[in-house]
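PROTEIN DESIGN WORKSHEET
SECTION A - STRUCTURE
LENGTH: 512
TOKENS:
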């Protein structure tokens, strides 16, 4: 939701939204300005339209789509959108110091840390998994069974063929799973579809960062102790004595360790950056952070500042992200063609009912997904209920991936499938839409399946250096996408998911 917080004294130090013209910290004003700035060079008319949008909360969808359309003009245009959007964010977002003074986000790139962090190392005692095994509908798929499932997903249009190829290559080379010699930093260690648990089960060395939380750290530490991996966690220096005279609860077997680990990224980015800078490399910085509402933009902004600071001092840094499927993407001609075939082969009942539904809804329901022959097509899977803060936070990650990749860095950014996460099931509209999505050819995944697939794609990307450089950033985003079918179904996703939600509500009532 949009947050308007009075810009008065007593605010918590850390990353904050700028003060708008009305004297309040408006998330809508920030998002609107960043989108307009991102469009300003490549699409001045689009920038003007974004800046003049009277109701950003209701009207943001068209402007986030326009960011993708404007970037299709050329590789340079796409990079310009990403670079200018990030520059606007860094110029506009604020950092509140302990004394209440404010500065720009870029000050975090060189600021001294306010805290010092020590490392606690948790070494697992379990045996590493030696084969790629994907949990799926009560089974664990490996070997030929996994290859058959990958082929079935490709045939159904659930994943891109390049996704299946990448997972199959990792399955054929299981020695890659442990990522020997590499450390993966997982920001958002408790993320439901983050790779932490899977990487640890494969024997990977992981540096984990998340908020101090009793819902996160007992689970994460217990998982690490029983795994084959090694977990590095930050602990504030100078805490209560651990009983050894060291002055900090800095041992892996300390009984209160779960209560003392964790760190708020938005509060002291320099401290986390310096801690990660000391971790042996090569280092992959994995961005899996999530928060509700306006906090999502704050933490996304903080992580971007952390990324810039860390990249400035480490040549061995690679980046990893998960893109949400409910966003706007350019998609290959093959996806457009499969969607057109699906539309042409609709059942007689669907053809008969589609026309009246479109008429009654003013053209909003069951529209064909793409103009004939589009290359690339534009798949607009934005869902209004997610809100502009969520979309902006995810778009910042895509922009950073584009800019870093253009600069020659290894980047793993893969589109994850629609997944029944807690954040989805808490939202009645989204939960209902996901419950009915199967009627339209969209497969919604369970978190365990998504985690493993995405971790396998991460391994593939790191071992291949991110794959061959594409001619345009949209092709990089489309490669290895596991979109759940949203790119290849017969209808534009938003025109089908509304009806899917109605079907999902009806199914839920029948089952209650």
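SECTION B - SEQUENCE
RESIDUE ASSIGNMENT:
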């Amino acid at each position: 939701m949009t947050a308007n917080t009075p810009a008065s004294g007593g605010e918590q130090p850390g990353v904050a939204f700028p003060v708008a013209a009305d004297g309040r910290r408006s998330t809508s004003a920030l998002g609107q300005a960043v989108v307009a700035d991102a469009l300003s060079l490549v699409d001045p008319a689009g920038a003007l339209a974004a800046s003049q949008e009277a109701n950003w909360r209701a009207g943001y969808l068209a402007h986030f789509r326009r960011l993708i359309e404007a970037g299709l003009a050329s590789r340079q245009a796409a990079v310009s959108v990403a670079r200018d959007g990030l520059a606007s964010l860094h110029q506009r977002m604020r950092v509140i110091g302990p004394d209440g003074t404010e500065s720009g986000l870029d000050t975090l790139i060189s600021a001294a840390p306010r805290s010092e962090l020590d490392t606690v190392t948790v070494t697992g005692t379990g045996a590493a998994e030696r084969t790629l095994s994907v949990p799926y509908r009560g089974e664990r798929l490996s070997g030929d069974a996994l290859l058959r499932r990958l082929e079935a997903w490709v045939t159904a249009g659930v994943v891109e063929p390049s996704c299946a190829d990448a997972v199959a290559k990792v399955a054929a080379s299981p020695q890659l799973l442990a990522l020997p010699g590499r450390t993966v930093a997982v920001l958002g260690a408790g993320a439901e579809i983050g790779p932490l648990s899977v990487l640890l089960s494969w024997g990977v060395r992981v540096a984990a960062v998340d908020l101090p939380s009793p819902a996160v750290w007992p689970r994460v530490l217990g998982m690490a102790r029983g795994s084959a991996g090694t977990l590095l966690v930050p602990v504030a220096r100078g805490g209560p004595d651990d009983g050894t005279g060291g002055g900090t609860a800095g041992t892996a077997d300390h009984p209160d360790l779960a209560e003392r680990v964790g760190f708020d990224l938005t509060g002291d980015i320099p401290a986390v950056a310096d801690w990660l800078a000391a971790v042996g490399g090569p280092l992959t910085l994995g961005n899996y952070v999530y928060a509700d509402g306006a906090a999502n933009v704050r933490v996304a902004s903080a992580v971007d500042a952390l990324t810039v600071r860390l990249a400035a001092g480490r040549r061995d840094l690679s980046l990893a992200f998960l893109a949400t499927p409910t966003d706007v993407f350019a998609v290959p001609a093959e996806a457009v063609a499969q969607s057109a075939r699906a539309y042409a082969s609709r059942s007689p009942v669907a053809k008969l009912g589609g026309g009246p539904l479109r008429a009654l809804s003013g053209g909003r329901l069951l529209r064909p997904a793409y103009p004939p022959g589009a290359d690339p097509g534009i798949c607009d899977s934005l869902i209004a209920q997610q809100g502009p803060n969520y979309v902006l936070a995810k778009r910042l990650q895509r922009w950073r991936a584009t800019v870093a990749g253009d600069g020659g860095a290894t980047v793993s950014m893969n589109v994850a499938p629609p997944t029944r996460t807690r954040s989805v099931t808490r939202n009645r509209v989204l939960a209902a839409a996901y419950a009915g999505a199967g009627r339209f050819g969209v497969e919604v995944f369970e978190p365990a399946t998504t985690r493993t697939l995405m971790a396998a794609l991460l391994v593939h990307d790191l071992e291949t250096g991110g794959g061959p450089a594409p001619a345009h950033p949209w092709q990089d985003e489309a490669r290895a996408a596991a979109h759940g079918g949203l790119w290849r179904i017969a209808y534009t996703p938003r025109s089908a998911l509304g009806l899917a939600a109605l079907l999902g509500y009806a199914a839920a009532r029948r089952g209650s």
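SECTION C - NOTES
The two ends are 30 Å apart (CA to CA).
The CA atoms of residues 56 and 362 lie 22 Å apart.
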